[in-house]
Amino acid sequence: METTIKSRAFEELAAAAEGIMNPAVQEWREGGGKVVGYFCSHVPTEVLMAAGILPFRMRGTGSTGTELSDAFFSSINCSFPRHTFNQALRGEYDFLDGLLCVSSCDHIRRVYDNWKQNLDTPFIKIMSLPKKVGDPQAEWYREEITLLKGELEKQFNLQISDDQLRDAIKLRNETRRLQRELYDLRKAQNPAITGAETLAVMVAGSAMPAERYNALLKTLLHDLNGVNGTRDFRARLMIVGSELDDPEYIEVIEEQGGLVVTDSICYGTRTMWVDVDEQAADPVEALARYYIQERPSCPRMNDDQPRRAQFLRDLIQEFQVDGVIGERMLFCDFWCAEHYMNKMDFKEAGVPFIQLDREYITSGKGQLRTRIQAFLETMGK
Amino acid sequence: MDRREAKDRALARYRQERDWFAFLLEAAGMMNTPEGQLQVKLLNILLDSKQKVVECVENDKPFIAAYFCTAPELFTAMDLPWFMIMETPFLGATAPYIMEDLQGAEEMGLGTDLCTAIRLPIYYIESGQMPVPSAVIGLLSPCDGTTMLQQILRHNKAWHNVPLFCPDPPYTSDERAIKYFAKELRQMVKFIEQHTGRKLDIDRLREVCEESNRSYALWQEYNELRRAVPCPHGWEIGGAQAFAVSQCFRAGDPRCTDWFRQLLECGEAKVKAGRGANDYVPEKIRLLWFDIMPYGWIFEFMPWLEQEWGAILVMDMFSNFPYTLIDTSSEETMFHDLAKRNLMDVPMIRQARGTAENFSSDIVRIVKDYKIDAVIWPGHMGHKDGAATAGIMRETCRGIGVPFLHIGLDLFDKRYTSVDEVKDKVSQFFTGMGLG
Lengths: 381, 436
Prior knowledge:
By secondary structure, chain A is an alpha/beta fold. Chain A is built from 14 helices and eight strands. In chain A, the strands form two sheets. Chain A has a four-stranded parallel sheet, sandwiched between helices. Chain A is globular. By secondary structure, chain B is of the alpha/beta class. Chain B is globular. Chains A and B meet through helix 5, helix 6 and helix 13 of A and helix 7, helix 8, helix 16 and helix 17 of B.
């Protein structure tokens, strides 16, 4: 990734986002640490952290094909699980001691089934994630987290105390706070960090121990302090959608003059906009409430669309957004319908909006460039 | 548009669909066979259910919109007319205006990779062509598309203020999940009572569940007959209708039980006489079609399977019988068993809501019980969790030594994969496997 940021911390963070294995994970493994891969930002990673396990968010980074996973998935399946499972079949994820999924979407939940049948990862579990955001659902998820805790204790022969959970929540909240600070920089007239650079930093946060990540992020924030950022852009954009872990995709958009200043994506604001309650008497309940009711939701959560729409409106105002890009991976029903509603809402509000369907791997850059150029022109930018 | 005009527009397609079924009823009436009489009875129940909804709209009486797997016995017990939001793709996909409506959905800007069975109701809601009910019972399984259908419905201006309740289906299939879902169903009843003024009488629910049990028991007995070689019935009668009668119209209605009784008698007579599904074609291939039937082009395909290949549809996903009867001894047992049935037994929800285990175990069970020669997973464009289970299904079939075909099509829209292409793929499969 091309960058103008002069920071060793940024270099290390960006490198972690560029591949699957990185030096921090390698070091963790060499020190005898366990690693559990997880799909979806609804996985309560704090429980893994409390157990002394490194949570590693699953990606298909570096994949060039789906030749092995095609025997298990079909052409109407999202390319994210196809590439990621392909990487797993190629042995890229052999370093995992476990895999933790939630019943997130039709495509990802079947990675669990196919993984269980075809790979020998010692620990594999899928959590039942409710589809509503009410109190009974938070209670259901509290039970699910308790069950997870018990299974981790049994599998890895350890105990997870409430104090350890509280410490993990604090540590993860610290990450969220630092990430919000990073996003605050993007509110400036000439942000010190681009959208592509920010995404790399966010992805790195799911691929290394939190202590190391927080230290690097603090250094990066220090390095960016007072830096005059990019002036060479035509419009301030927000990107809204699902799993987007490739900074190159945003880089292509930004090369056309559309500076991505904020987002609502699975690696972005939705994972860090609010904190888990640190004062709650029961840390498990606090986690359940956070993941079901408090964090900004995604379209998977049924009765929450008005709150999601409000969240987008707030971001537009806060980050002075000129236009919105709705990205969606092909065959994703959640974002197909969500963007259909977003399109209507933005039209009513007079906010320019474009929907871009894409494959997991950033391909068709020429087409993407053309669409962005046309979008910026229709915005009069 | 004033209220009267809006009502007329909302009812226009609904009335057309009713008239389409009335036309089919007329045609079925001309068939002087026991199977023809079964179709007549079924269509009469269906038309009656549709007419009730029309009357409710016209006279401002309470009625609800719901789905087949939301415990319809409760609606019957509350004497509440209801219609299925996905009724058109499921029941009326042969209607002459379907292609026009699919085109309309595309023009609205809905992605064409969104399931057709979801796109059509969204189109009807967004274009004001679906009756606006007193309340909606939404569905959050088996797929991502159904979840989004409820959200678009809520987002629509005409439906925005219509009370909506969606029971939340857990992903797991254990006692804890059943108890949780039973609580959701109880919440659903409270919600219906609040918004329709109807009350649930537990004694009446018991009567309805007992009647529903009688229907299901007859269905189970009938399915035993389908194990016979040759199979007494194919795609035309028995399986899919049994599902529609028990779950789509008036669950727990004595007329449904009567229909099942007649179906059983009809099947028994054929088995005793050693007659197969088609008197003119000997049974050569016993087929499991592991999904919904291709309702959008069923008449162009299913008869061809029989005539060209002697392939008899012995079982499909909706004809399968994995149900347990409802224990009516107490209010608690009834809610428990209704929760179990609607979470873990009903077709598609059973396979696609949770982990992939039921895809495999159902295939193994059905292949063994019904002496199946070949399994076809049609690969409907909307069934994405199933598409991601294709490898597991293939391996399952390989393990039990039965040929497996995955096609890739749209069950409702033949433009996706033409009927000729589907026929070609099936022919190549049968030939390659030495069947027929």
